[in-house]
Amino acid sequence: MIFRSILFAIILIANNAHATRVFSGTVSYVTDGDTLWVQPDTGGSPRKLRIDGIDAPEVCQTGGEVSRAVLAQRALHQRVAVTVRRNDIYGRGLARIQLDGNDLGAQMVRAGQAWSYRWHREPGPYAAEEAAAWQSRQGLFAAGRPELPRDFRKRHGPCHVVRR
């Protein structure tokens, strides 16, 4: 058990050690409402990034296709500034992304296309934007109580999205 824990820690450290922390580039693909690919201005392979601090519906979940379309409409082929905080367990960089000087995560939550990512009892970094979206019944919050993506994944597992 100790060996596995040490091995896991080494993998996480190695995975995060090579991550570029700050870069700019162009959004080349949108996977879903909180995941996109950015081609760095310096070249190399596109980087798969998850927008830090938000949780959008799975593409196979109600509202998922719309959320992906909204992110694509806002960001696809646009130049962005990226700050990677760390990598997640899937190898994606968890990043704050600025589009025209505006926080893309805040925009998605304010538009009602994602939730502020909760951790335990913390409401997440975009709690105010989420509250405003609920109050004005934006996007996912227009009718009823949409299912949180984490609850959807617990019941159905993740959607399998193939990058085109």
Comma- or semicolon-separated keywords:
164 residues; OB fold (Dihydrolipoamide Acetyltransferase, E2P); five-stranded mixed beta barrel; two-stranded antiparallel ribbon; alpha+beta
Number of domains: 1
Number of strands: 8
Q: What is the mean predicted local confidence, pLDDT?
A: 88
Label the CATH architecture: Beta Barrel
What this model shows, in words?
It is a single chain. This protein has 164 residues and is of the alpha+beta class. The chain has one domain: OB fold (Dihydrolipoamide Acetyltransferase, E2P) (Beta Barrel). The chain is built from five helices and eight strands; from the N terminus they run H-E-E-E-E-H-E-E-E-H-E-H-H. Strands 1-2-3-6-5 form a five-stranded mixed barrel. A two-stranded antiparallel sheet has the order 4-8. Strand 2 (35-40) and strand 3 form a beta hairpin. The longest helix is centred in the N-terminal third of the chain and has 16 residues, at 2-17. The radius of gyration is 16 Å and the shape is globular. The protein starts with a helix and ends in an 8-residue tail after the last helix. Residues 5-19 have low confidence and may be disordered.
Short description:
The chain is an alpha+beta fold. The chain contains 5 helices and 8 strands. Strands 1-2-3-6-5 form a 5-stranded mixed β-barrel.
Summarize the SSE layout with pairings.
Blueprint: H1 2-17, E1 22-32, E2 35-40, E3 47-51, E4 54-55, H2 64-75, E5 79-87, E6 93-99, E7 102-103, H3 104-110, E8 115-116, H4 127-135, H5 149-156
Parallel strand pairs: 3-6
Antiparallel strand pairs: 1-2, 1-5, 2-3, 4-8, 5-6, 6-7
